[in-house]
Amino acid sequence: MTRVTKGSGAKAGKPYLVCVKAKGGAGCTYRAVTLADVERAIVDDADFLVGTATSGDHDLDGQLEALEGTLDAIREQIGNVVEALSHGASAALSERLRALEAEADAKEAERVTLLERVEAAYKPFVEQRLGELETALHADPIDKQAANAAMRRLFERVTVDYPRGKLVFAWKNGAVSEIVFAFPDT
């Protein structure tokens, strides 16, 4: 979403959020959502939102362990191919080495993403970030900059579900929470 304000100066209207794709004519339906409605919903439902946070995903440790085992196996295969290449060059071995290195790079990127999810799911970090979000949203006036920063650390994305009138929060640890920001379309 991007922020849009019609007019300028004293004639400026209320700011809205609009899908970037819709604004650029790239396929989405152009629907403007009042920024004030979104902000109000987040502030009014801050306690609910924080209360729906999960403390972690127990499957992540298992996924990380399995991924690290796969990475170890790939690295061992790379070592074997390098050893074989030291005894003589081979086009097939060189191609195999490139494929294994590409696979290792992809798995390493997957590992980094998984580590970020593990960190996001680690309870003390989540609790600290939730505290920062609550403090920013309950400040008078609201500390929008701090709230935005805390939300970026907690959420992968926030989607405006216009037809249902909901904001869908995708937590970095994989969980999802929803709050109502407007009455749904009928």
Attribute tags:
alpha+beta, 3-stranded antiparallel β-sheet, 186 residues, coiled coil, 15% strand
Helices and strands, with pairings:
Elements: E1 2-5, E2 15-18, H1 20-23, E3 33-34, H2 35-44, H3 46-51, H4 59-86, H5 91-121, H6 123-138, H7 144-154, E4 155-161, E5 166-171, E6 176-180
Antiparallel strand pairs: 1-2, 2-3, 4-5, 5-6
Characterization of this structure:
With 186 residues, this protein is of the alpha+beta class. The protein is 57% helix and 15% strand. The protein has seven helices and six strands; from the N terminus they run ββαβααααααβββ. The chain has helices at 20-23, 35-44, 46-51, 59-86, 91-121, 123-138, 144-154; strands at 2-5, 15-18, 33-34, 155-161, 166-171, 176-180. The longest helix is centred in the middle third of the chain and has 31 residues, at 91-121. It starts with a strand and ends in a 6-residue tail after the last strand.
Mean pLDDT across residues = 85
Series of H and E elements: EEHEHHHHHHEEE
Tell me the total number of β-strands: 6
Question: How far is the first residue's CA from the last residue's CA?
Answer: 23 Å
Q: How are strands sequenced across the largest beta sheet?
A: 1-2-3
* Dominant shape: elongated
Unreliable stretches: none
Number of helices: 7
Helices and strands: which structural class?
alpha+beta
Coiled coil: 64-117
Keywords: Coiled coil
Organism: Rhodovibrio sodomensis
Protein name: Recombinase family protein
